[in-house]
Task: structure prediction
Amino acid sequence: MLDYDLHCHSAVSDGLLSPSELVARAAERGVKFLALTDHDDVAGLNEAEEAAAGHGMQFINGVEISVSWRSHTLHIVGLNIDPKYSPLAEGLHGIRNGRGARAQLMAESLARSGIGGALEGAYRYADNPSLIGRTHFARFLVESGHCKDVASVFKNYLVKGKPGYVPHVWASLPDAVSWITGSGGVAVLAHPGRYTAGRKKMGSTTMRELLREFVDLGGRGIEVVSGSHTPEQYAEFARYAKEFDLLASCGSDFHGPGESYRDLGRLPDFPLDCRPVWLAWGLK
Ligand code: AMP
Ligand code: MN
Ligand code: MN
Ligand code: MN
Result:
């Protein structure tokens, strides 16, 4: 079992726990090295770092940036970033700015399908209103009895072709990678097994084009062990890591008790021959 967890969310984005609650849970579950990677915001890092010090845990500043690439939404994790680096801070601010108008359009789309009150409903779940997003709408749709759980929301709502879906343009891939690397961090392609083309997984040709571009821009890592990957996908993305000379990262992508595929600190070891991302910052 790995004692690193380099991808998780607090209530600063769409997680359920405060940064210090999240750190306490990770500590209880045996995590020794933790990165907090909230979506498009770094506001939880100070609190998490202080809490981690109290638990004798090594803390890594992280972020998960929303990116539009071709017709896809991708997530790029930045690890060991400097949250004060102004292009990064300003870039993230720009992404957050688009979320309010998107939320308004999402609520209008749901209202056209007969679901009222979604905007206010979603904001009730958003501790950080500037980070309003689909998870907060999903929690409202569960609370209001339209869906049995968050997972079923993402089958029937908020995704392409379903009520509540609103196309959105996020950061560009070159911008996201340069904000991360410019701040001294390592850019990591998050949960590559999650990206789809229509109802199918992203094909290997597109995946290779993406990885080539990502590496040429300065991207250095790929999530091999992710809470949303199957064991077959650990092996698949370990092969891509080798092919593109990328460092392997691991993270639960934990959002909250009962809402995530995997809890904190429950990650199996990397497949053989992966080079762990922590080699990039001198940890063993
Ligand atoms: P947003 O950035 O507002 O588009 O919201 C994206 C978030 O929605 C992701 O970070 C996940 O937390 C959540 N999400 C997306 N797809 C799913 C899914 N199939 N099941 C559960 N949560 C999902
Ligand atoms: Mn999320
Ligand atoms: Mn993600
Ligand atoms: Mn995530």
Remarks:
- The two ends are 15 Å apart (CA to CA).
- The longest strand covers residues 58-69.
- The chain has a mean pLDDT of 96.
- The pocket of manganese (II) ion (ligand 4) is lined by residues 7, 9, 64, 253 (CB under 6 Å).
